[in-house]
Write a structure and sequence with these properties.
The chain has about 230 residues and is α+β, with helices and mostly antiparallel strands. The protein contains 6 helices and 8 strands; from the N terminus they run E-H-E-E-H-H-H-H-H-E-E-E-E-E. Helix 5 runs antiparallel to helix 6.
């Protein structure tokens, strides 16, 4: 694992996107807000961050996955969105390559993930989002191409930039940016699938509390980064 120090300046979202495009960026971390960002390569993921920063990144990843069945089947990792061509063009191809896209979401496993990362009000918010995912997943059971469904395939984050970390005792506030992506497909009248891969640059602020030695997010807010509004 190689950690490379870079100049003491604010990293713009343009720079973040450019670094992601080269395949070299996974996480920007500010090393407890001292203004000296670190570049962490993808293979190390989040292991070299502080415990509170790892909790923040876990919350950012789960926040992206909680809108889709990825909450049940995807791993906690920072990764680029998959190539759309890999999913195939027909329902039968998708079912053969990615059967989990048409399976029921495991509510117990999903809720355990939520409770392991969030606490208090934010755990309730994420639990409510899970209920929507469960309803959508249930609706996909037995769907045929003739019904022109929207296929919810995957979601995640391709990068996280931590701008500021303020910790006092058992509480902390962290702010940063992230690039969230999702993969979804719309079955067309022809039976082929038209894939889309929306990506949003978001400003994230989280308040965390350490509970029995474990950092959890009890409040998380997100807004579109300037210039990335839909």
């Amino acid at each position: 694992m190689k950690i490379t120090g870079i100049s003491r300046r604010r990293i713009s979202m343009v720079a973040l996107v450019a670094a992601l495009a080269t395949g070299g960026l996974t996480i920007w971390a500010d090393s407890y807000g001292n203004g000296s960002p670190l570049l962490v390569n993808e293979s190390s993921k989040i292991a070299h961050l502080s415990s509170v920063q790892r909790a923040f990144v876990s919350g950012v990843i789960l926040d992206a996955q909680a809108n889709s069945r990825a909450i049940s089947i995807a791993r906690e990792e920072v990764k680029p969105a998959p190539a759309l061509a890999s999913f195939g063009r027909t329902i039968s191809t998708v079912k053969s390559r990615y059967p989990a896209a048409f399976q029921k979401v495991d509510p117990s496993a999903s809720m355990r993930r939520i409770q392991g990362v969030y606490h208090g009000r934010q755990a309730v918010v994420e639990g409510n989002r899970l209920q929507t995912v469960l309803r959508n997943a249930e609706a996909m059971q037995g769907v045929s191409a003739s019904q022109y469904p929207v296929i919810d395939m995957d979601a995640g984050v391709s990068g996280v930039q931590i701008n500021h970390t303020a910790q006092q005792g058992s509480t902390a506030t962290i702010s940063g940016k992230t690039l969230q992506w999702a993969v979804m497909g719309q079955v067309q009248p022809s039976g082929n699938i038209a894939w889309a891969e929306p990506e949003n640059a978001l400003l994230i602020t989280a308040h965390l509390t350490r509970i029995k030695g474990v950092w959890k997010i009890d409040s998380l807010s997100r807004t579109f980064a300037p210039g990335s509004e839909p």
